[in-house]
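wait is this the right file?? whatever heres the structure
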């Protein structure tokens, strides 16, 4: 297997950190970037990174994904240390729950900035760094909530629709450049982001996915040659796969809406 260089955002915990550990354990160069540098510094002390640090296969640093200059710095560090970037995993994101009028507007606007603007800036910045190698790809973290809008997390759900739409468009737009753009679409995952969250869909469907479940999919996508990736969206977990299949097969949105209404409201 070729040794790849992968940049991961939101890598101080959860899905991002778990994915970084998997990649590092297999000898790949990994850049872990996060706005929470203190948490990130602690995370890379994990024994899972000991061998990678010894072989100088780890880079890490600050990255506010909404700040283009932070992206420039992170990319420059990766280029200086590893000579380029093969894969970007746009993992950073936040969640705000509650009925829209009852939630804090500033928090919702911050969500839109990180979940939408952050992914857009990353795609914009990284595309010029990729030359169309057989593994050159962007993997975005979407969600099963991008299949049909979810109540109680409406702006979050909408932000993932943005990620889904951007992924679909760039999958076509970047094809002539030899860059693959795909996304993963998990349902609820047991991370710090969902800890203590109270929404109806979690009550009814549960928190059944672990960060490792999603990281396994991300690892496979990241390390597979682009020629072997024939889909744009990769649902994670049976409920997400079922909902995605229902949306694909239903002749109208009525069945999909009914399913979401039952599980989410």
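ok assuming it is, sequence goes like this
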């Amino acid at each position: 297997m070729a040794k790849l260089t992968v940049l991961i955002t939101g890598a101080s915990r959860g899905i991002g950190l778990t994915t970084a550990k998997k990649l590092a354990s297999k000898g790949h160069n990994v850049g872990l970037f996060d706005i929470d540098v203190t948490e990130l510094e602690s995370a890379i002390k994990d024994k899972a990174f000991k061998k990678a640090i010894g072989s100088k296969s780890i880079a890490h640093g600050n990255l506010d994904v909404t700040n283009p200059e932070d992206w420039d710095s992170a990319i420059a560090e990766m280029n200086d240390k590893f000579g380029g970037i093969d894969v970007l995993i746009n993992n950073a994101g936040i969640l705000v729950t509650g009925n829209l009028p009852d939630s804090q507007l500033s928090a919702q606007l911050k969500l839109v900035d990180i979940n939408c603007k952050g992914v857009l800036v990353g795609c914009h910045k990284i595309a010029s760094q990729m030359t169309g190698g057989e593994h050159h790809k962007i993997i975005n973290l979407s969600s099963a909530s991008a299949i049909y809008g979810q109540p109680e997390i409406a702006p979050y759900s909408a932000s993932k629709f943005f990620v889904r739409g951007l992924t679909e468009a760039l999958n076509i737009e970047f094809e002539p450049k030899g860059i693959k753009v795909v996304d993963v679409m998990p349902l609820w995952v047991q991370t710090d982001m969902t800890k203590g969250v109270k929404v109806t869909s979690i009550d009814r469907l549960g928190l059944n996915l672990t960060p490792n479940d999603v990281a396994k999919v991300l690892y496979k996508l990241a390390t597979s040659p682009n020629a072997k990736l024939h889909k744009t969206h990769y649902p994670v977990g049976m409920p997400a796969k079922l909902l995605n299949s229902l949306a694909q097969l239903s002749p109208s949105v009525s069945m999909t809406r009914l399913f979401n209404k039952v599980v989410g409201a």
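The mean pLDDT is 90. so i think its the right one actually
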